[in-house]
Amino acid sequence: MSTATGRSPAIRRPQNLDRQIARAKTILRELRDTLEDLDDRRELTRAKQRNAGKRGTDWESVIKDLGFKF
C-alpha cells in the first residue's frame, strides 16, 4: 500500500516524530550552552582564587599597553 507521498507507511516518519527530534536538538543546544557557561564560571572562580591577594593591573596601564586612546 502506498501513501500520497509515494512512501510506504512503514518507512514514513510521523510529523510528531520530526517535531520531537527538533525539540530534542533544541534542548541539547541549550544544555550545551548551559554547560559551557558553568565551565566558564568555574574557571573564573579558580582564576580569582589563584589571584587572590595579588596586585592587579591599573586601568591606565592596560589602556597604554593596548594602545587605546580615549
SSE arrangement:
Elements: H1 15-50, H2 59-66
Describe the structure concisely for a colleague.
The chain is mainly α and 70 residues long.
How would you describe this structure to a colleague?
- The protein is an all-alpha fold and 70 residues long.
- It has helices at residues 15-50, 59-66.
- The protein is elongated.
- The relative contact order is 0.06.
- The model has no long low-confidence stretch (mean pLDDT 88).
What's the main sheet like?
none
The proportion of residues in beta strands is under 5%
What spatial form do the alpha-carbon principal axes imply? elongated
User: How many DSSP helices?
Assistant: 2
Q: What structural category do the secondary elements indicate? A: mainly alpha
Tell how many strands the DSSP assignment holds: 0
Task: Give helix and strand order, one letter per element, not per position.
Answer: HH
N- to C-terminal distance: 75 Å
Helical fraction: 55-70%
* C-alpha-based Rg, rounded: 27 Å
Average pLDDT: 88
Low-confidence stretches: none
Key descriptive features of the protein:
single chain, 70 residues, mainly alpha, 63% helix, elongated
